[in-house]
Amino acid sequence: MPSIRKVLSNKNMKDQLTSEEFINKILSMMPEGQQSKEHYLKTISSPQFAQAIAQFSEALNSENYEMLLSSFGLNLSDAEGARDGVEGFIKCILKKFPSRKKQEEEK
Q1: What does the pLDDT look like over 41-74, one tens digit per residue?
Q2: What does the alpha-carbon distance between residue 97 and residue 93 come to, in Å, rounded to a whole number?
Q3: What is the Cα–Cα distance from 107 to 105, expressed in whole angstroms?
Q4: Minimal CA–CA distance to 3: which of 58, 66, 68?
Q5: Could you give the CA distance from residue 39 to residue 107 in angstroms, rounded to a whole number?
Q6: How far is 29 from 20, CA to CA, in rounded Å?
């Protein structure tokens, strides 16, 4: 079964996970009192985070896939052609939140 954990692995996300811009955005969303780089690094390397990602992957590849996408406000048609729930979710996210580079290219 495809896993979002593979997508979010340190190998795939190393540059993003260590980008100061990305970290600062994430820190602003973390609970008060935990808005430090140390807490961020501890969180993304914790067993609880890994377990949550695994459960999320399972949900994306379950029969509740459409309901899950809908609960995130994603358009199911954006997942068209996806081979599995993880790929579908990623396609929907990319469609809803295009990268800055893509937005600049479209201008």
Answers
A1: 888 888 998 899 889 989 999 998 999 999 999 9
A2: 6
A3: 6
A4: 58
A5: 38
A6: 15
